[in-house]
C-alpha cells in the first residue's frame, strides 16, 4: 500500500481532460467507487490501482505523486557534461540531463579551419543542428550543405556526417540527438 498523495492530482488531471470518474474508472479497469474514494482521500490505494490510473491518464506514477513545483530539473553549469575532440578543435557541453539514452542536447564550438566527424547513431536516430554563431558546412553522406547563423538542419543520425568550419572564426551551434535504442533480436 502507498500513502494517498494522489487524490487531488487525479481529480485535477481528470478535470483538465474533461473526463468523468466513470470514464477514467473504465479506462483504468477499476470500479468507479474505488476511484471516487481515492480522489476523496478516503482510502490508502494500492500501487496497482495507482499504476492503472496513471496508465489510463497516460502519465507516470511520479506525475501523480509529485507536486507541480517539483517538476523542473535544473542542471547547474558545473554538473553539465563536457567533451572535446582529440585535437581540441571541437568542444561540446551537454545541456540536457546526463544519462538519458534516447535524447541528448549539446552546445558546441568548432575552431576555425577545422573538422569534426560525427559518430553515427543507431538506425532510426535523428539529429538536429542549429547554428548560433558563425558558419560551417554540414556534410551528410557526401552531400555538403553550407549553414550560417540562424540556420538549422535535420538528418538521419545513423548516416556518416561531419561539420567543417572553413572560416576564420569559431562557429557555435547546438545539436540535438534523438537516439532510438537498438532492438535486440532473439
Q: Which class do the helix and strand fractions yield?
A: alpha+beta
Strand count, sense and barrel status of the largest sheet are: 6 strands, antiparallel
Residue runs with pLDDT of under 50 for 5 or more positions:
182-186
H/E topology pattern: HHHHHEEEEEEEEEE
Rough outline: elongated
The end-to-end span amounts to: 37 Å
- Which fold does the CATH topology of the largest domain refer to? Jelly Rolls
Helix coverage percent: 10-25%
- Compute the CA-based radius of gyration: 24 Å
The first-level CATH class of the largest domain is given as: Mainly Beta
Tell me the total number of β-strands: 10
Strand content: 25-35%
Could you characterize the architecture of this molecule?
The protein has two domains: 7-70, 434 Repressor (Amino-terminal Domain); 77-178, Jelly Rolls (Sandwich), CATH 2.60.120.10. It has 186 residues and is of the alpha+beta class. 22% of the residues lie in helices and 32% in strands. It is elongated. The two termini are 37 Å apart. A hairpin with an 8-residue loop joins strand 2 (90-94) and strand 3. The protein has a six-stranded antiparallel beta sheet with strand order 1-2-3-10-5-8, with no helix packed on it. The protein has a four-stranded antiparallel beta sheet with strand order 4-9-6-7, with no helix packed on it.
Amino acid at each position: 500500500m502507498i500513502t494517498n498523495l494522489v487524490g487531488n492530482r487525479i481529480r485535477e488531471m481528470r478535470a483538465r481532460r474533461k473526463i468523468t470518474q466513470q470514464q477514467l474508472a473504465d479506462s483504468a479497469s477499476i470500479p468507479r467507487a474505488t476511484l471516487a474514494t481515492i480522489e476523496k482521500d478516503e482510502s490508502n490505494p494500492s500501487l496497482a490501482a495507482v499504476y492503472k490510473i496513471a496508465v489510463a491518464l497516460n502519465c507516470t506514477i511520479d506525475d501523480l505523486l509529485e507536486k507541480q513545483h517539483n517538476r523542473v530539473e535544473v542542471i547547474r553549469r558545473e554538473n553539465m557534461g563536457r567533451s572535446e575532440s582529440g585535437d581540441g578543435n571541437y568542444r561540446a557541453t551537454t545541456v540536457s540531463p546526463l544519462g538519458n539514452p534516447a535524447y541528448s542536447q549539446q552546445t558546441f564550438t568548432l575552431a576555425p579551419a577545422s573538422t569534426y566527424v560525427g559518430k553515427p547513431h543507431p538506425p532510426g536516430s535523428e539529429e538536429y543542428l542549429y547554428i548560433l554563431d558563425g558558419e560551417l558546412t554540414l556534410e551528410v553522406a557526401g552531400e555538403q550543405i553550407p549553414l550560417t547563423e540562424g540556420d538549422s538542419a535535420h538528418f538521419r543520425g545513423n548516416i556518416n556526417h561531419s561539420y567543417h568550419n572553413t572560416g576564420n572564426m569559431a562557429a557555435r551551434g547546438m545539436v540535438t540527438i534523438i537516439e532510438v535504442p537498438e532492438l535486440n533480436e532473439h
